[in-house]
Amino acid sequence: MAGQKTWISGQGNQQFGDFWASSKENGLIKTLNSLSGYQPGSVTKSHVFGIFRVEEDPLNRAFNFWIATEAGSATIPEGLETYWVPACKWAIFSNTGELPMSLVEAEMFAFMEWLPSSPYQHANAPELEVYPAQDENLVEFWLPVLEK
Question: Could you give the percent of the chain with pLDDT greater than 90?
Fold first, then answer.
């Protein structure tokens, strides 16, 4: 994937919203859509998505957050960085509604209800915030998992 990152210093959801807003204003979203050929990615089925780089310590909620697109073999424009999201098993939690609450609700369900009673634990991989192109009201939270 290719995109830009910002440091999230804790639980403040406003930091995410501010980064998304500035990315729209400064043309990053347009650049990423252009890089993807305005086509949804083959894995995420999304044009642009968020990456929570929590793989070193999923309990530490201070991390780099990326806004990115699946870049494939495209030439990466100057000003963008690349990152290879490792292959892993994902538990995907979908929700509809107004952002950011619909995403927060999906995350809270994943962590507070589903994960503790599942046969899985958080894998050492990033979490994803995905917006499938087929439904503009849908958000998905991708939780990397491995068996306990």
Answer: 82
How far the first Cα of the chain sits from its last, in Å, is 29
For residue 12, name the pLDDT band (cuts at 50, 70, 90).
low
Q: Which residue has the tokens 């959801």?
A: 13
Residue 63's CB: how many other CB atoms inside 10 A? 21
**Rounded Cα gap, residues 120 and 116, in angstroms:** 8
DSSP 55-112: TT-TT---EEEEEEE--TTPPPPTT-EE--PPP-EEEEEEEESSTTHHHHHHHHIIII
Crossing angle (nearest 10°) for helices 13-25 and 28-35: 70
